[in-house]
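User: Predict the complex with NAP.
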Amino acid sequence: MADKRLAGKVVLVTGASRGIGAAIAKRLAADGAKVAVNYAKSEGPAKEVVSEITKAGGEAIAVHADVSQPAQIPVMFAAVQKAYGRLDILVNNAAIMQRGFLKDVTAEDFDRHFGLNVRGYLLCAKEAAAVMPKGGCIINIASAISRMAYPGSVVYSATKGAIDVMTRVLAAELGPDGIRVNAVAPGSTRTDMNNASSGKTKEEEQMEEQMTALRRIGESEDIADAVSLIVCDDARWITGAWIDVSGGIRL
Ligand code: NAP
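Assistant: Here is the predicted structure with NAP placed in the model:
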């Protein structure tokens, strides 16, 4: 049972209608935070996340924005301010991953991935930093893939490499304002992004299990519980960190 260590805090999680983002929204709500659940297309599932949170005694709202569209980002932050009047924690999570070897990569693939996975994170961090009080915190959901050289993922991996650098630069830039910025890097985690529907084969899954020290694929809750540790005040001296949450992949 989670304690209420985030009581009084307001959190925005991007891409929280499914997968890792939904698990983070639920976990931080269980920690006592009021949570804004962002979605782009999946309104029904986002409302279901809100309903699960409220049924469990928490507080949440669904906020729409396609984070790859710069004009929609300030509108989403304004909706959070209108509902809760403050923002303490931003979890940049919404991202896409399309597999592709170099020979198949197009300029459109590049722009689509960078427009959401990097520019989306950056513009959300900008809006958040403008309103966050001292003690605020930004989590960038990165990926273990940026340190793995995984063939067939060059564009996606490059976006996650950009997030690693952005995290350190923003930690340095926002630290004097009392805002922490950290990257949480999942390894292979069972979600829509990473299952048979996204092209993952049974053999690849078994190989990934064997690559982890703990010998299994991660679950969204494994990532959410780690985020809960990093956003709380006990982690007040942690900033600019890249936190491996992969079950020990390729140690
Ligand atoms: P997922 O299952 O595909 O879910 C993606 C979420 O992002 C959905 O809620 C989706 O909502 C939302 N989203 C997509 N495009 C959006 C947009 N333009 N604007 C706003 N929201 C958008 O992905 P996941 O596996 O949970 O991944 C979450 C994060 O973990 C990502 O940053 C990913 O790179 C990272 N990660 C995942 C794994 C893994 O193995 N799964 C490993 C390492 C890192 P809508 O349907 O409403 O668009």
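The radius of gyration is 17 Å.
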